[in-house]
Task: structure prediction
Amino acid sequence: MTVDNVWSDIAGLMPPKAEREPKRRSAQGDTFLDPYEWMRDKESDRVQKFVADENEYCERRMTGLKTLRGTLFEEIKARVQQTDMSVPTRMNDYWYFTRTEEGKQYGIQCRVPIRDENDWDPPSISAAAAQGDALGNEEVVFDCNKEAEGHDFFSVGGLDLSHDGRYVAYSVDTAGNERYDLRIRDLKTGEDFPEVIREVSGGGCITPDGKWVFYTRVDDAWRPYCVWRHRVGTPADQDVQVYHEPDERFWVGVGTSFDEKQIIIESSSKTTSEVLMLPVTDPEGTFSPFIERMPGVEYDVSFARFEDEDGDIPVALVIHNVKNPNFEIDVIDMRSHKPPYTLGEGVCVAQGSPSGCEPPQGRKFTPATRAIRYESVNSLSEISNNPEILQGVQGLRIEGIAMYRNFVALSYRANSLPQLAVMPKYAAKEDFLAGRPWGFGGIVPRVDGKLYSIGMSSNPSYDAPRIRYTTVSYTQPGELHEYDPETDTDVLLKRANVLGDFDPADYAEKRMWVRVRDGEHVPVSLVWRRGLVPALEGAKEGLTDELIEAPRELTLSLEDMSARYDRREAPMFITGYGAYEISSDPGFSVPRLSLLDRGVLYAVPHVRGGGEMGRAWYEQGRKLNKMNTFIDFVDVTAALQRNGIADPKRTVANGGSAGGLLMGAVANMAPQLYAGIEADVPFVDALTSILDTSLPLTVTEWDEWGDPLHNAEVYRYMKQYSPYENVKNADDREQEFGTRHFPAMFITTSMNDTRVLYVEPLKWLARLQEPEVEVDAVAKIEVEAGHGGVTGRYKRWQEIAYENAWCLAAMGIEE
Result:
């Protein structure tokens, strides 16, 4: 059954008609007449009416899917263990954990005291988790359900505790605009201090002694730009600004160092970062840089020590890209001199592969490095002074290092997946003093035939004897493990419980590759239920080297493309992001099971602009290379369809925020490949926004998209793909693509969104709904939420069911 049939019981229903009031936008010698810019006046009566009318239209159009929505919501609920608790994590003198209870929207933060200083075995949760019973001596630290009473929207910006656990600084947002109110609570009495610090950025920190709070404020463009100091128990109007970042490209954050010795300010743009420090013993002192800011250089630092009988060796662990685009880690012996230090000093213990990358800023290629640069991103890493575990891998990027009393852990990315390596601390000390590569050993998840994500988790205590880490795949729920590198002992602490008849063996996943039109190999992850996707029956699973070709031409209509095949192709839900160097790594999803169980193939093209293959992957999908992101997604879609895996008449695409820009671009570029598209909080009026420096995020985004205000080439390039102003009328599509078809569109947005303003998707919606465009477009507009949508788990499940019902209907699935 098609979407039209599902919705046909509301005959003749037409979308609201938006007024056209052309406004001139002129830049770089070009003029664009924008008919819907008037929608930027959020409080105006006609904007409010348009929003209300569109929501009513959407709800009436979705009436035929009410039963399916209810079914999907109940399937989610039935699979989730609603009363549950996390494995306790030790921090100082308490074990902390989160409890959820059936019927409650939010988690409850709790704790119990440790038994003694050597208590490193977490309290057992098996019985208490299933029944919702409290552990002995349990204390509620923060109950979001109580705090959220009376609010339609509720989000916690952060919770930070004093060292003794008595005081907590917390911030909450009840509007969705990411401006928080900060309070301090005495957990001994349960009472808040009288002062309330209004409209701060999320996060902040309380000093270990509980006497001071440091927090950030935002400017008119919603940029966290300055740090303030507050003395607990005093009026907020006595607070003092301690740092101000004048460069509009930079965002500022503040926190305490891992060893609680320093208050740390981090100021960073997309391409440059700086760390400033202040001893916690001198909270009214002056912050000083650890390493002076260098344009185009990113770095971060953590502090630790090698224990030694003759005196500990204090070290700084610095990760930076001053010499290597994919970062290196230097360990600096802090006995030699005091800060400021210089990037590149110390002992390099791990470095990424420069293959495919641009040179670091200010550096030129030598003949040897030029040869490396023009190798494929997929070239194998062979760096002589690297640990053995980093040899012979693709897309090697170093992501971080953490040093504890008993072990050292290394996070990196290789072969398109996150990786984790660990070694005993004594061995790291020996390697450091000897000046040789460190002998890390990899932690290999127990997920044969799966695509996995792995990373450190719940390790806040320096003295913890074992490392905790998590693993998850697309089809295997998350697991929390504890590993002792000295004894090579690995213990499973908890596996996420999926209720009902769920069996991971019923599902399969694989990563294959698509050669796109410029010759690059783009990885794509596929997930499906066995027996329901004929073309993948018996296929090799897990991380494969299987390669298929993207077609050379995309001009066929949906009907012509579908007629080529024997109807074995599956309906496909294909989703992507591809921006900001963010990787779309494997993760488990309960709602996704409802799609897979209905025979839907779930696909994730890991397009350029993300970080899956290291820095080069990002560089090749940003600024004047941004079109690669869209082309990769289109070519992967077409390759899966042309190879008989997915049905073009039942292919639905999805993306949100920058992924919503991706959705708008591919809809304009290749409408014949998609039956429907869901675009969530989509960044679709990109050029207008990036030209306006008064808007949130604009100046900081120039490092991502380019600066069209001052660069004509960037302006012309962005104008090619900005979705809103490139929507074609049906006659033009027929001339260019040989079909009037355009995918049905489902759009979500929130009126309080500060990252992608509501006006962008509303203007796009109005343009799509113009009669001559001939597009079936609806939008669900949240009036009490922000960029992340609604809050509360049951509300969120209802929203996912709503969205997935539309997607299934667009594939012709109504049950």
Remarks:
- Confidence is low (pLDDT under 50) at residues 1-9.
